[in-house]
């Protein structure tokens, strides 16, 4: 069905009234196959049925419509209909750069999708435009990216076929329950948060401002057992002298992850006390499995006191309150305290903890602010995982309007812990997707409509900008351009070859026929073999071998085969009377490449 003239005029006028170029929109109307579309109802409009007996022209591919092929117009139409305005993230000089909460960079292999996640992550976190970062040296951007990862504002994971809900959201894992420093009890099972849930919890953390108390911006609350629960001599000593102590005197003063002199549970406890615990963190001294009898602020680095033969491991503490009996079960999301000597209380409600501190502290200069810094969670190869299995109930919660603090804020009860969980508004999800991967066809439709898709296609201009022009008379950008034109005709544009395959040629010292040969032999040829399922006649067409007169310059050499010389009698077999082989020597000849284009 195609709209008639009156309908086209109605569309054009509506677009002009909305500030869009109506004539340009009309020019971009066309046919499209796919699962994503937008339905617009035009009242009192007529549509003319079009009979096209031959069907769609051969070569039209099924693909997602995005900015790269006119999708920006569709995006503007969508925003007009939904009354949403979106800032162009690549606009130079933009003061308030905004990005979609969920984005996927997609394209054929080697187009720099993973490479560009670094740019997008830094741009989102630092509220800069993509174009401004492209003007900076990539090494500087990469350094900033690594810093953001260390700060916990950027995380990276890769989906695969065995990746599941338990790794992404939450699950159950077996642990050895440590009772005291000399013995361990039997096996037990604990609920554990997956990578995305942990990341969201980090992004939710409030900021604490307490100059006089010297509590750090994002404090961790530590549970510490001093010689056990209830009243103990060690507690009295620590409360009186302003420190906390733990044992394991026979172990090395300083241990690391590779230390095998202690079991895994003890190693984790010692590393928590030695490495993970930071100055200006908060510490709760456990009284029972639901109460505490002291609150303090870590006030010093880790020490090992050799004179103390029982509890040599020590940290200074500035006590806010001691010898109290405070219930913290509700603050810890209705979870009882474990009998572990030292461990972080990740579920603890920081705002509630601050209220507790204010109750016992003389100072009232404690402010709690919501964390509004952008966080970016990167999912490489997002289409390779079972989306429904991995995301579960989050498929709804990741929508921008369903985030915590958004207009339609939504939370869900998690199946294992029963906790109420929502995705923070400051969390951005950035995925990458390879269009040549056959698993793209299995991509969950529900996920597709919740993400903005940004197409990344081969770009010979990038090769030119990198100084990859001619190598011993071989025009490298021309090779890429011509091969992709042929692949697009023989297959489709989703299986073209990306420019990133040729980046090892950056720098004059790397620009040689030998290095170009390595790229073709190790990357390009295997990719073409996968694309065409070892149909070497098509690979010959892509490489231009069919037009070469001299066999010495052919990358794929074909020779005639007489079936009667191989099989006895007259075999009634429909087999091609040719055999193909990769001619490695041709890849080291400049003339072989020149004859591609």
UniProtKB/TrEMBL annotation:
Molecular function as annotated in GO: ATP binding; ATP hydrolysis activity
SUPFAM superfamilies: P-loop containing nucleoside triphosphate hydrolases
Top-level taxon of origin: Bacteria
Boundaries of every ATPase dynein-related AAA domain copy: 363-451
PANTHER family: 5-METHYLCYTOSINE-SPECIFIC RESTRICTION ENZYME B, TYPE IV METHYL-DIRECTED RESTRICTION ENZYME ECOKMCRB SUBUNIT
Protein name per UniProt: 5-methylcytosine-specific restriction protein B
Source organism: Bacillus thuringiensis
């Amino acid at each position: 069905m195609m709209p008639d003239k009156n309908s086209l005029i109605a569309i054009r006028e509506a677009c002009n009234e909305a500030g869009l170029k109506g004539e340009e929109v009309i020019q971009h109307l066309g046919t499209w196959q796919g699962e994503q579309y937008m339905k617009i109802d035009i009242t009192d409009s007529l549509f003319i049925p079009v009979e096209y007996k031959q069907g769609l022209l051969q070569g039209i591919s099924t693909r997602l419509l995005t900015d790269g092929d006119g999708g920006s117009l569709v995006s503007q139409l969508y925003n007009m209909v939904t009354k949403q305005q979106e800032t162009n993230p690549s606009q130079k000089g933009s003061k308030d750069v905004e990005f979609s909460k969920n984005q996927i960079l997609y394209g054929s292999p080697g187009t720099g999708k993973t490479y560009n996640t670094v740019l997008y992550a830094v741009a989102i976190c630092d509220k800069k435009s993509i174009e401004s970062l492209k003007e900076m040296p990539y090494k500087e951007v990469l350094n900033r990216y690594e810093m953001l990862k260390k700060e916990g504002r950027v995380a990276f994971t890769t989906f695969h076929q065995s990746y599941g809900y338990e790794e992404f959201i939450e699950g159950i894992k077996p642990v050895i329950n440590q009772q005291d420093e000399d013995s361990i009890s039997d096996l037990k099972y604990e609920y554990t948060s997956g990578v995305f849930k942990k990341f969201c919890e980090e992004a939710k953390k409030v900021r604490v401002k307490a100059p006089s108390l010297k509590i750090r911006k994002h404090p961790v609350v530590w549970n510490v057992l001093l010689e056990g629960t209830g009243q103990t001599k060690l507690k009295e000593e620590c409360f009186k002298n302003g420190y906390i102590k733990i044992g394991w005197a026979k172990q090395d003063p300083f241990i690391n992850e590779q230390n095998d002199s202690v079991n895994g549970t003890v190693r984790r406890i010692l590393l928590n006390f030695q490495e993970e615990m930071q100055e200006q963190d908060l510490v709760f001294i456990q009284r029972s499995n639901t109460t505490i009898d002291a609150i303090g602020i870590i006030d010093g680095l880790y020490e090992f006191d050799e004179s103390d033969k029982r509890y040599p491991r020590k940290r200074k503490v500035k006590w806010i309150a001691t010898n109290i009996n405070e219930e913290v079960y509700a603050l810890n999301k209705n979870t009882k305290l474990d009998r572990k000597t030292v461990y972080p209380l990740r579920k603890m409600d920081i705002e509630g903890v601050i209220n507790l501190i204010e109750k016992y502290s003389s100072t009232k200069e404690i402010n709690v602010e919501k964390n509004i810094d952008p966080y970016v969670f990167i999912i490489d190869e997002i289409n390779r995982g079972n989306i429904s299995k991995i995301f579960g109930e989050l498929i709804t919660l990741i929508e921008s309007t369903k985030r915590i603090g958004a207009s339609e804020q939504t939370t869900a009860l998690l199946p294992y812990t029963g906790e109420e969980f929502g995705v923070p508004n400051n969390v951005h999800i950035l995925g990458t997707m390879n269009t040549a991967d056959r698993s793209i066809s299995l991509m969950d439709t529900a996920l597709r409509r919740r993400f903005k898709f940004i197409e990344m296609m081969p770009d010979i201009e990038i090769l030119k900008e990198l100084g990859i022009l001619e190598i011993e008379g071989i025009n490298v950008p021309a090779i890429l351009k011509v091969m992709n034109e042929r692949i697009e005709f023989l297959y489709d544009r989703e299986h073209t070859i990306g420019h990133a395959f040729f980046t090892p040629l950056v720098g004059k010292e790397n620009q040689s026929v030998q290095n170009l040969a390595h790229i073709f032999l190790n990357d390009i040829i295997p990719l073409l073999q996968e694309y065409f399922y070892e149909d070497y006649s098509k690979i010959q067409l892509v490489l231009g071998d069919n037009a070469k007169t001299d066999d010495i310059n052919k990358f794929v050499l074909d020779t005639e085969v007489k079936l009667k010389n191989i099989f006895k009698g007259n075999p009634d077999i429909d087999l091609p009377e040719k055999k193909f082989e990769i001619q490695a020597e041709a890849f080291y000849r400049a003339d072989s490449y020149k004859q591609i284009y």
